[in-house]
Amino acid sequence: MNSVRGLLAASVISVQNSCFTYPACQKCFSRLILDSRRFNCLKCGCTGEAKDASYRYRLSLRIADTNDLFYITVFGSCLDPFFGVTAENLQRCIQDFNQLSGETDTEASPGALVQAVEACFIGKRFIFGV
């Protein structure tokens, strides 16, 4: 894998999905497999109770600079200032909202949240570390 890193100034064209958080392993940050009671990390083998799973931001974007289009995913706490809360707290709000509204998919982001994220990012220019 190429270890050359750089900065890319680009504008956000679109938000690629509506799931902005994921259950993350505290050791390796891989996505956890959750069932109703337990979590399991397939990468490092970490296990625990589902209620203790931690969440992390994952924002997939389509971006453009002056010459090219790219797909990029931004991870982690660098997104806290944009959302105003940690991924843990946002996930808790999403779950509470979905429970109150009768949504059966407990991971689904409410439409208003998706619209707010699109309004915050689409058309804006950012510097991405790649």
From TrEMBL:
Any single GO CC term annotated in Swiss-Prot or TrEMBL for this entry: cytoplasm
Keywords per UniProt: DNA-binding, Metal-binding, Zinc, Zinc-finger
Entry keyword DNA-binding: yes
GO MF: DNA binding; zinc ion binding
The organism's place on the tree of life at top rank: Eukaryota
Residue ranges of every copy of the Replication factor A C-terminal domain listed in the record: 9-95
UniProt-listed SUPFAM superfamilies: Nucleic acid-binding proteins (SSF50249)
Example GO biological process: negative regulation of intrinsic apoptotic signaling pathway in response to DNA damage
InterPro entries, A to Z: DDIAS, Euk_RPA1_DBD_C, NA-bd_OB-fold, Rep_factor-A_C
Family of this protein: Belongs to the replication factor A protein 1 family.
Annotated PANTHER family: DNA DAMAGE-INDUCED APOPTOSIS SUPPRESSOR PROTEIN, DNA DAMAGE-INDUCIBLE APOPTOSIS SUPPRESSOR PROTEIN DDIAS
Name of this protein: DDIAS protein
Organism: Sula dactylatra (Masked booby)
